[in-house]
Amino acid sequence: MKIFLIAAIMATPQLIAAEAILRTENYEILIHSACPEGYVSCDRIHFKIQKEGEAEPIYLIGSTWHLTGRDGITPSRFMGYRALDQSGLGYFIHEEGVFEIRDEGRSITMTEVGHWNYEAELGSRGGFPPQPPHHRTYGSVSGGS
Questions:
Q1: Does 137 score more than 70 pLDDT?
Q2: Mean pLDDT of the 101-118 span
Q3: φ and ψ at 4, to 5 degrees?
């Protein structure tokens, strides 16, 4: 029985335990991937967005954000992360540390530049609820911002 349990654990894909934190002047964005290590793109990126001075954070599930190759499908250059809230606002976190909020027409309504920090394990900053209460994901986007 022990051998079977060890074999089952070793065959299970390892989840990424690391998380990244982007800190801007008014926001702290905690990002965690729920996809197995080695995935190029992921549609299970968990966000905890805490605005300074507000009691409750926003929990969202989004995806990685890539430019696509010539075929319009294959992910190429990593751009960052993105998610939608219930009202249709888009949250974009650029690889360079820029945080943008865009309206449904994709016009930028807020932008701040921050600094990345990386934590060793999930839970070091309060973590995430088992299932964030509200989420929508973007469909594929070819091209940049």
A1: no
A2: 91
A3: -60, -45
3-state class of 6 per DSSP? helix
Number of neighbours of residue 15 by Cβ within 10 angstroms: 13
Residue 127 confidence (pLDDT)? 58
Which structural domain, as residue segments, surrounds residue 42? 15-119
* pTM for this prediction: 0.69
User: In total, how many domains does the chain have?
Assistant: 1
SS3 66: strand
**Does any domain span residue 50?**
yes
The answer to whether residues 97 and 116 touch, using CB atoms and an 8 Å cutoff, is yes
| Neighbouring-strand partners of residue 33 | 45
Run of H or E including 131: none
